[in-house]
Design goal:
By secondary structure, this protein is an all-alpha fold. About 45% of the residues lie in helices and about 5% in strands. The chain has a two-stranded antiparallel ribbon with strand order 1-2. The protein starts with 5 loop residues before the first strand and ends in a 32-residue tail after the last helix.
């Protein structure tokens, strides 16, 4: 499993490993495999987990936060809006939002009904508007108009918990953090890295497995894999490059051709979630709200 660069296939670009897996009908080979029915020691699990992380780094060398942002404030707002909706819907909503309220001072002074209307497409718009006005006012009043770069400060902002704080710290400030969203939680349990359900306990147990320098990118890689291949209801097991390392292989579709049809976003030749993806993203940008 040495190839990790995107290659063109069937009119779209896919990472070479996943494309090869889908064509050959066999999961890519790995140095270690899971032995069904045999108890796994903690050390063996740690080694397997780290191997999965290395493999994901080759499969998704372009992994990134899938929210469009240009500064810490935009990332913070976008992350708050992403609750109970898709990153795509947030990205389609924020251009007009940030045009109207580009700074914390502007958003703190927003008329609630006008802000609600702008963020309505993301759902739960009244509660989210209240959080956005509250956190903006706190940033203005308590942090000199600048988003704070410490976890202890971020979690004091209305509507901001550890997950949101870690997203902002890792991607706007370069401070390592593990982001336990629904994708991350279900995959690390599916891979038997933890049995915990509480996000903070999941974060603590996964943090103990990996060096701190890996935390932010590990989060992106796991979430990317969960959105593209290892889906919640019907994972594409037959097209999964890390299948030999997965103790839950077979929970999803194992037929290679059927599994290939389950691949999403750039893996399936479809647009991603960002309207403005990074330059190295091998897929197509998402359409603007109302386009296409």
């Amino acid at each position: 499993m040495k190839q990790g660069k995107p290659v063109k296939s069937a009119g779209s670009e896919k990472p070479a490993k996943a494309a090869a897996t889908a064509k050959s009908g066999k999961p890519a080979k790995a140095a270690a495999t899971v032995m069904p029915g045999k108890p796994e020691s903690h050390l063996a699990m740690v080694r397997r987990a780290r191997r999965i992380n290395r493999e994901l780094a080759e499969i998704y060398p372009y992994a990134h936060p899938e929210l469009d942002f240009r500064n810490p404030f935009e990332l913070l707002v976008a992350t708050v809006l992403s609750a109970q909706t898709t990153d795509l819907r947030v990205n389609q909503t924020t251009p007009a939002l940030f045009a109207a309220y580009p700074t914390p001072e502007d958003m703190a002074a927003a008329v609630p009904e006008e802000l609600e209307e702008l963020i309505r497409p993301t759902g739960f718009f009244r509660a989210k508007a209240k959080s956005l006005i509250g956190l903006s006012a706190s940033i203005r009043d308590n942090f000199g108009g600048e988003v704070p770069g410490r976890l202890a400060d971020l979690v004091t902002l209305p509507g901001v918990g550890r997950k949101t704080a870690n997203v902002v710290l890792g991607n706007a400030f370069g401070v390592p953090g593990i982001t336990v969203d629904t994708h991350f939680g279900r995959l690390v349990r599916r891979w038997k890295w933890t049995e915990q359900e509480d996000p903070e306990k999941v974060e603590a147990e996964i943090a103990a497995i990996f060096p701190k320098s890996e935390w932010t990118m590990l989060s992106h890689r796991v979430v990317f894999h969960g959105r593209r291949i290892c889906h919640a209801r019907r994972p594409a097991c037959g097209a999964c490059p890390i299948a030999p390392l997965c103790p839950s292989y077979g929970e999803g579709e194992t037929d290679p051709e059927k599994a290939r049809k389950l691949l999403k976003y750039e893996m399936g030749g479809q647009p991603g979630q960002r309207l403005s993806p990074p330059p190295d993203y091998p897929g197509r940008p998402a359409p603007a709200l109302g386009a296409g």
